Predict the 3D structure of the following.
Amino acid sequence: MQSADSSSNGRRRPQSPDPQIALPASIVSEQGSDDDAVFTPVARQFPEDGTVTDSSQRRRGLPAALFNTYCFNSPADNAARQSIRALLQGTPVPQDMSPACLGVWAETVRLLNEAQAAEGADGVHRAFAALAHLEPALFSLLCGETGADKIEWTAAELYAADFAPPRMVVDGLLPTGLTILAGRPKLGKSWLALQIAAAVGKSGAVFGLPAKRGRVLFLALEDTPSRLSDRLRKQQIPEDVAITFFTKWEPLGQQGLSHLMLAAAKGYTLIIIDTLSRVVGRADQMDAADMTLFMSNLQRLATENDLALLLIDHHRKPGVTSSADPVDDIFGSTAKAGVVDGALGLYKQHGEREAVLKITGRDLDERELALRWDTTHFGWTRADEAQEPAHTGRQQEALDALAKLGKANLRDLVVATGQERSNLFRRLQSLEQSGVVTRVSEGGHVYYALAK
């Protein structure tokens, strides 16, 4: 009996990695009826220099590390990369562009261009996801640098060059590139990740270290929406913080990586994946070749898009603060740590409020921060720093208005502070719960005043 996913001529029909995502018509060649639809990837002829990037060769069992060695920096690669990025951003490729300019990627660009013409930006994104699943080399192409990099330097040239300093998303803690935050289970890594996300999303600070304001993509893959809502409230993170949460994401070995690439191109400053084990898919975390390929793709994605990618991971063994190493303790193959730009290790004994955060990286000073769990704000604070201000800046604005007005309803306070009504109401509730503000009802109206 012929299987349902095979055509009458014996060739396998195209199948979307996700049954919820249909392959766009523009990447399926129609031969007769729909049952005869066949997709045949164009064979890639890459340089015969020992490198391997063709997905068919990859599937024949050649080492994964070898699959990642071609850097895609030829003129044709650069032209294809620019064309594909333009298509993903909604700009069609000029009709008069010669296929010869695109080299082996001419057919890929043509298919994406057809998807753009037929279905718009959504069609291009679906087509790219399906093509990248069948041709993993597309990942490396899109992540690669545009323009040939200088790879040969004399000492004099290095001295004379004016290099930009490494860019930090959180000064002294989180650089652009790939960073791992690891620790034993249930020690507060996710809480710390949320603190970092909030600092970036609202231009705040973490442990007194200023954060660059920007948009945050947070893949909270071990949390439910209700738990996230509860944590946001407990950490008193404002509603207008620039964080977008996802509670489900496809494994990066399937369409998850192409989806992450598309997201990265939307201008995020920070992407957090909590946890790495939820997206690693079939890749073996103990296999050096698998992890070199997996982590290198993520590192290149972060570098190319000038963002910080923070992976939440686990330690391989219980950490002992006196001898713990934030690199050696990362679970799995040492290749995982070999690719990253920064490594943060959170060490804490169960039942204790004190912890140590060990920091190391290519552009980070190696250091340790003594931390203490704050049971009031549900987050980590520096054990050696002065007590944080009792109230946030926006709460203090409300208190200053009440000091001036004496007694006021919510509408008067909105006018006095310029704050959004629902956010101000939440802040007044928090101040009331802490005993700083009282609420009274008079004549059917609710008024607020400073507690005596």
The first strand starts at residue 168 and ends at 170. The domain at 393-450 is CATH 1.10.10.10 (Arc Repressor Mutant, subunit A).
